[in-house]
Design goal:
Number of helices of chain B: 4
Number of strands of chain B: 18
Distance between the termini of chain A: 57 Å
Order of helices and strands of chain B: HHEEEEEEEHEEEEEEHEEEEE
Structural class of chain A: mainly alpha
Strand content of chain B: over 45%
Helix content of chain A: 55-70%
Shape of chain A: globular
Structural class of chain B: mainly beta
Radius of gyration of chain A: 28 Å
Oligomer: heterodimer
């Protein structure tokens, strides 16, 4: 068949070409990637107002603990012993609230094992006390992690059975206590300074995530680090700190066993999750919650409910954790289960949202 | 080997005849069978250049340790080592050694559809390791001078030479050496070795190899964990020299000395001790004496680490991710052992089997000396008395059992008692 080009055909072809051009232009315009939403404000707030401030508080509480121990050594009274014990508990609060973000200098500088190894190696500690080395801060610093840090201080302040009297201290124990507390003060100061913008400024890696940060090349990778940190502590509290002494019916597995501070430790660990999630410490700001709610408001709120339920369940464990491990196992299991719910939500619902950003 | 060659030739010739008969159904030509024999000889010659040997150990451990009451009894497919050698010429030989420790290892990725989000999971299927321990080429020049190059074994101490389960009495290799030295100790470099002197009574080995990394040094194991095998490549900023001289006696007995010297600080993962020397010096004197039914082995080893205080300080600040021990390191190490065993079946009429009854004493202290300001932890001063039996139903198969009583230098809770029963074997194609 012979086809002739006349004005009608030419017009039709012309219109068709225009339509195709228009259509393809339209298609192109829909495929142009829109700029991704930035979560820089959320990450910066968590880095600056949660993590850095938590470490600053840890350093200042550690300095107070050291000064209280100095007073106790100089004036060995029961009330000064109580004050020093109270200062130890106060220092535990920011530390446990920091365990939801055990990355960065606390990890790369080996500070976590240097200040929070447990259980205390009592046999080796006795060997050091029985020796004749001068128990200076630098000597303590050179010891293995199980012979220094929070739990060695706790052991010296409370004794193995938790009811040590001020008259029970030997001169060597005071000498050790003073240096190990000074060491904690120094280590926590190094940690705080390493995050501080006026110091080594590690926080810059978070505030500049996705731009000039050499560690977090994208904002997503910084958010993933934060969520992984939250998952890590939920796992550690539920399946380690609570489950080990419970399932093995063995109090030697209990952290903070001498001071009976375990329940506070657990609750503050859960609060560390809350603080990162909600972007709050002393002030409120943007957190992971604000990222999640854009995808799923119900889920975002549900995790907060689960966090509150876990803290309540920990608080509801009657008496001390040491006692409850044997005598109130249902309550201990309830607390463990509530923390496991947090871990599951973080792993199976929150992290996939972050991964898909 | 001659028997093996004959059998192999016969099988190949037979196989050739069968194939020919089946395929062509013709009478064989005498010239063909000559060619077949020549072919068979060629093949057999090629195969004769290959040789293989292997040894392995499987043990059961029953622990009664005051220092670790929770320690679980265990079974361990400790290792199987397989050697493949190829003789290019009479002067040039390739040697490989593969070791599968604790049953090997494997990782797979799988899609778990039954998880809520169909997650991809990385599964570690088994613990252990598969290692290429040796890969080297030996150039045989003269009996008194041979050169080996590649990844090779360092023959420091006694266990490196008495490495096979049929060689040592205890169920596992010398606890003293295994605590302090990497066993086996393999590095990349050059080795010169040979036999010298009147009747070639003296044997020597000299090494130039890559050094250790001080980031792995620890209270419990001194330099052992400084053996670099955690990363894909080993740092070779620092090299080391090592050597061994043995005087050979009758019945495969020997007495001698060995030593190692090399820096270790520049091989750390990060340059955090640049400009600070961390030389490791080790020297030992050893003896292995075999009489007819009686065997005695002994060794005294001493080591020194330079700047152990600065190394301890740097190690304290290592990242958690490196998973190092980070414990203070001793400046001096001391180790000693003596063991002897007697084949009690020699008193009976049983001549094709052996039953050695043995006893052993070890002393080792990885913090024998410390720099000022470092706690000399008595925990790491250890002594062990071990006794047991080795039953050989065949010269290459051994069934072992021992009871080891280790005492730590602590005032209380210092006993570590271990009962072991296990099997070991070795074989070599060169034996046929």
């Amino acid at each position: 068949m012979k086809t002739q080009l006349n004005w009608r055909n030419t017009t039709a072809i012309g219109l068709g070409l225009m339509a195709m051009t228009f259509t393809s232009c339209k298609k192109d315009s829909t495929e142009t990637p829109t700029a991704k939403k930035s979560y820089s404000a959320n990450i910066s707030n968590i880095g600056t107002n949660v993590i850095t401030q938590t470490y600053k508080e840890l350093a200042s509480k550690s300095a107070i603990l050291y000064s209280e121990v100095v007073k106790l050594k100089d004036n060995q009274t029961a009330s000064n012993l109580d004050i020093a014990r109270g200062a130890w508990r106060d220092t535990r609060v920011p530390w446990e609230k920091s365990e939801g973000f055990l990355f960065g200098p606390v990890d790369t500088k080996g500070i976590d094992p240097a200040i929070d190894s447990w259980p205390v190696n009592k046999i080796d500690l006795d060997a050091v006390l029985a020796g004749s080395d001068a128990l200076t801060e630098s000597f303590i610093d050179a010891l293995a992690g199980e012979l220094k840090g929070f739990h060695t201080i706790e052991y010296l302040l409370w004794g193995g059975t938790g009811n040590k009297q001020v008259g029970d201290f030997t001169a060597r124990e005071f000498e050790y206590l003073l240096s190990v507390t000074e060491n904690l003060k120094n280590k926590t100061k190094i940690l705080a300074d390493s995050w501080d913008p006026a110091g080594e400024n590690f926080v810059k890696n978070l505030t500049e995530a996705g731009t000039s940060s050499s560690i977090y090349l994208t904002e997503k990778s910084a958010l993933q680090e934060l969520v992984q940190g939250m998952i890590g502590i939920a796992d550690e509290v539920a399946n380690g700190k609570i489950n080990d002494p419970l399932s093995q019916q063995d109090l030697s597995k209990e952290e903070s066993q001498f001071s009976h501070n375990s329940k506070n430790d657990f609750a503050n660990n859960v609060r560390s999750i809350s603080n990162v999630y909600n972007g709050k410490f002393n002030v409120n700001g943007l957190g992971i919650y604000d990222v999640v709610k854009e995808s799923d408001q119900n889920l975002a709120d549900r995790l907060n409910d689960e966090i509150n339920a876990a803290i309540t369940a920990i608080d509801n464990i009657p008496g001390t954790f040491s006692d409850a491990v044997f005598n109130n196992q249902a309550a201990v299991n309830e607390a463990k289960d509530k923390i496991t719910v947090i871990q599951t939500t973080l792993e199976s619902e929150i992290l996939p949202i972050i991964n898909n950003l | 080997m001659k028997n093996g060659f004959t059998i192999l030739s016969f099988v190949i010739i037979l196989l050739g005849h069968q194939v020919e008969g089946f395929g062509q159904n013709t009478t064989s030509n005498p010239n063909d069978s000559t060619q077949q024999v020549q072919l068979a000889e060629k093949l057999a010659k090629a195969i004769s250049k290959l040789s293989m040997k292997a040894y392995g150990v499987v043990n059961y451990y029953n622990y009664d340790w005051q220092t670790d009451p929770d320690r679980r009894d265990a079974v361990d497919i400790e290792r199987i080592n397989m050697y493949m050698k190829y003789r290019f010429t009479d002067k040039i030989t390739l040697k490989t050694e593969f070791e599968i420790e604790h049953g090997g290892t494997g990782a797979t990725m799988e899609l778990d559809k039954f998880e809520e989000f169909g997650e991809f999971e990385t599964e570690i299927e088994a613990g252990g390791a598969v290692l290429l321990e040796q890969l080297n080429i030996t150039f045989n020049y003269k009996p008194w001078l041979n050169i080996r190059a590649g990844r090779l074994k360092l023959y420091v101490g006694v266990s490196s030479k008495l490495d096979l389960p049929v060689d040592y009495f205890t169920g596992y290799r010398s606890t003293m050496e295994n605590t302090i030295l990497p066993l086996g100790w393999y590095e990349v470099g050059l080795e010169a070795f040979g036999d010298i002197g009147l009747k070639k009574k003296w044997s020597y080995k000299l090494y130039l190899v890559n050094g250790l990394s001080s980031s792995g040094f620890s209270s419990a194991n001194w330099i052992k964990r400084g053996f670099q095998r955690r990363f894909e490549v080993a740092n070779a900023e620092n090299l080391a020299v090592a050597g061994r001289f043995d005087y050979n006696l009758k019945n495969k007995s020997w007495v001698g000395v060995s030593g190692y010297f090399g820096n270790s600080n520049d091989n750390r993962p990060k340059p955090d001790l640049e400009g600070v020397p961390g030389h490791v010096s080790i020297v030992d004197a050893h003896a292995c004496l075999n009489f007819k039914k009686f065997k005695v082995r002994s060794m005294l080893m001493y080591g020194h680490l330079q700047n152990s205080d600065l190394i301890s300080e740097a190690n304290r600040n290592l990242s958690n991710n490196l998973n190092e021990k980070r414990t203070p390191v001793g400046s001096d190490m001391l180790g000693f052992f003596v063991e002897s065993g007697y084949d009690v079946l020699s008193f009976t009429k049983v001549k094709d089997k052996q039953l050695f009854v043995f006893g052993r004493y070890d002393f080792y202290d990885t913090m024998y000396g410390v720099e000022p300001g470092i706690f000399k932890n008595p925990r790491w001063e250890r002594s062990a008395v071990t006794f047991g039996i080795n039953y050989f139903p065949h010269p290459e198969v051994v069934i072992k059992s021992h009871y080891a009583m280790r005492t730590l230098g602590l005032a209380v809770d210092n006993k570590e008692n271990t009962f072991l029963i296990g099997i070991g074997f070795k074989f070599s194609t060169r034996n046929y």
